Amino acid sequence: MKMSPWEKLLEQPHPRGHFVQLYEADEGALTKNVGQYLWEGLRRGDGALVIATAEHQELFCRHLDGLGADLAAALGSQQLVFWDAHQTLDQIMAGGQPDWQMFESVIRSAMRVVRPARGQEGLRAYGEMVGILWKARQFSAAIRLEQLWNKLLEQSSFSLYCAYAIDLFGKEFAVANLDGVLCTHTHLVPAQPDGTLETALNRSMDEILGSKADALRVLIKANYRPGWAVMPAAEAIVLWLRKNLPEQADQIVARARYHYHSLLQPAVESRLAAE
Amino acid sequence: MKNLILLVSDDKSTGRQLLPVLARTAAPAFRVEVADSRAGIEALRIPSVILLDLMLSNEPAFDVLRWLRSDRRYKELPVFVLGSEDASHRVNEAYALGANSCLLKDSAGEELERIAEGLAAYANLIPSIDCASCG
Q1: One digit per residue, pLDDT tens: chain B, 135 residues?
Q2: Which chain B residues are closer than 8 Å to A220 by Cβ?
Q3: In this predicted complex, what is the ipTM?
Q4: Please, where are the H alpha helices in chain B?
Q5: Is B127 helix (H, G, I), strand (E, B) or coil?
Q6: What backbone phi and psi angles, to 5 degrees, belong to B34?
Q7: DSSP-assigned beta bridge partners for residue A98
Q8: A187: β partners
Q9: Given an 8 Å threshold on Cβ–Cβ distance, is A244 in contact with B104?
Q10: Cβ–Cβ of B126/A245 closer than 8 Å?
Q11: Proportion of chain A in helix, strand, coil states, percent, rounded to 5
């Protein structure tokens, strides 16, 4: 089966790639995407540093195990290293904001622990300290931490995957709230790399906007936003609608949520049946 | 009275390229007019959508955008700026000043036609302005 550009990105992230996924609407998609990013790294001999909550560490381990990873060996050799996101965050905060010197010292220590396979030097990092700050409504601290990660990415060669519990179908997913997040990443990873969200959204736009939907999609596609992360068409459409057609956006996005979950249902059922 | 799509530009080639396409695709619901400055904008009726060329020569386009966003008659209006990829910093600044969207000026031919159709569809979907309350 042909791989989407997004799946390729997770398989072979470019060094200094800084990805973000907004997962509140579909936590299973986060586990799947991060699992894929880590698994491909381990197979290629890259080191992997995961700074995550205990819950997510468990989910990622289970998913990696399902993909066939030898977790005991990867953890034992320190090719794969888990750090707790809450504890790590406590070590880098000063006066309510992340501090560069503390951040650099702690994260470089973590990176030194990771051991890529012999002859390899690639490093894939996953971090959700930013997501913890966002959830606690410490928005400026979250953006500051992203900027610190970018400073570190300029100095070292690794890729970074961040995650926020933000609902793509919720009102929080709007330009006014997310400009800082989108300006500090290179790519916004789609919840489902196969285009399920785009299908759901297009269906909803067709139902609500009728014959105007096609013309509007062309206008939205032509929107030029150079300072932002590269993002999938569907996410770009939602942001545009929330900004420029707020009255219709609520209805379109609510219906898209329904279609999205309907489209996912057969896939979930067949996965459960296989298990 | 027809609603208005207002192109703010003093670049003849932009006008030559965009106006016929806009006029053709927006009709019959919208009338398309051109202004080249703040004074020109104020002389016309309140539009439904403004297309603002970022390369004005009469006065800085950012000044016009700042003024639009501070004037109660225009501040809620959608403003699409016309920019270019080789001046992306100007596009980012326009967003920071409150532009709704940016379209690339060098879109051509069939693509431009389709974008103009999109603009007309968009203008039809937004609530019409109650000019009586605009002062």
Answers
A1: 678 999 999 988 888 888 888 888 877 778 899 999 999 999 999 999 999 999 998 899 999 999 999 999 999 999 999 998 888 999 999 999 999 999 998 777 778 888 888 998 999 898 765 544 443
A2: 118
A3: 0.90
A4: 12-26, 38-42, 61-70, 88-96, 109-125
A5: coil
A6: -125, 140
A7: A93
A8: A19, A230
A9: no
A10: yes
A11: 60, 10, 30
